[in-house]
Specification:
Blueprint (H helix, E strand, L loop, with lengths): L4 H15 L6 E2 L1 H8 L3 H10 L6 E3 L2 E5 H12 L3
Antiparallel strand pairs: 1-3, 2-3
């Protein structure tokens, strides 16, 4: 799949903005997927299997703390 240059640039800016957030910031599934460069369905599958990054429920909605995403990325790079 070839992403148009302008769209790719906008997505990169959005990811940069999200990564700069503090550890306690809550991200939507869509935002978390963008940061991890995964599909939202992949995050849903991880949740259903008891894996993936830690998440919290805010009412009926799933949210990910930026710090949990950072910890998950660090662990994934170390082969965990």
């Amino acid at each position: 799949m070839n992403i148009p240059t302008e769209l790719a640039h906008q997505r990169a800016e959005e990811i940069s903005r999200l990564v700069a957030l503090p550890d306690e910031a809550l991200l939507t599934t869509h935002e978390a997927a963008a940061v991890l460069r995964l599909r939202r369905t992949t995050l849903a599958w991880h949740r259903s299997q008891g894996g993936g990054p830690e998440y919290v429920h805010v009412g009926s909605r799933v949210r990910y703390r930026m710090g949990a995403l950072r910890a998950y990325m660090k662990g994934a790079r170390n082969g965990r």
